[in-house]
Amino acid sequence: MGFSGRLMHNFFFHSERFRSPWKRAVLGNVYRHSMHGTASVAWLQGPFATRADWVQAGTLMQRLWLEMTRHGVYLHPFGSVVTNPSAHRQFLDKIGHRPTDAPPWLLVRLGYSTEPPRSLRLDLNDIFLA
Description:
Helix content is about 50%, strand content about 15%. The protein contains 6 helices and 3 strands; from the N terminus they run ααβαβααβα.
């Protein structure tokens, strides 16, 4: 996202610091600026109502992500466009989505890049023990 670790930490662990309108406006501008130069977006859509749908969607996403990475193409999800009702409605309107169409369940920006910084995720065993 191009944000400093300190800013991200403060945003998620001290969100009360960002409640005033002027701070939210500044942060919104910083976020929008981080997307400057994004030329390519993509979305995945398809059945997403049952556990089997979720597994198939996850399998597709994993294969796509690995194949893209193999070619030096990286992605960054726009999670809020799927989870925020207002943003989701605007996205559906923008792409001309009809109620009979399969739902879009992932929106990403993507492109060629040097390898992004590694995410400091928990080890698998730590996840299961948590």
